[in-house]
Amino acid sequence: MKFIRLVLYYLFFRNLPGPTFPYMGPFFEWLRYRLCRGIFKSCGKKVNIATNAKFGNGYKIEIGDYSGIGMNCKVPSDIFIGNYVMMGPNVTIYNAKHNYDRTDIPMLMQGVSISERTIIEDDVWIGGHVIILPGRIIKKGTIIGAGSVVTKDFPEYSIIGGNPAKLIGTRKQV
User: Fold this and answer.
1) What are the tens digits of pLDDT across the range 76-133?
2) Sign, Cα dihedral of 47, 52, 54, 57
3) By residue range, what is the domain housing residue 114?
4) How many domains are contained in the chain?
5) What global pTM score does this model have?
6) Is residue 98 annotated as a catalytic residue, yes or no?
């Protein structure tokens, strides 16, 4: 049954307009949510799967309450997304990288390595066009500025940005 839902999602539901579409937008958003609840390993309440979101087969995705996968986003099929996570458009999260250790074989022929699972903890805001490299843990309360490339982990309540992402500030009151 999950496979049928997955096929329906990628053939029809993925491209339905978002919630700002006149009259039918919120209904289309609800349809995507209902379909993805039957695909994902776990799916909280009031989850937003935006237009054209891609998530592989999605069978191992866990997503918490009031969270979302933004418009045109690409996330791995085994990601963990906590509660209250906002994700802007065109976010890309990777879970694999090319091997390049040997110099006697072209990199193209060395295969890929699947890394550890990417984890996005609760209350995180990911700006548009962010790239998150494999195996990162985005800690609770973090804000990632638009266009950032996240190559390492940061403490809770960090404000990060840039390429590569650097600590800009903290949300904690000192």
Assistant:
1) 999 999 999 999 999 999 999 889 999 999 999 999 888 889 999 999 999 999 999 9
2) positive
3) 2-170
4) 1
5) 0.92
6) yes
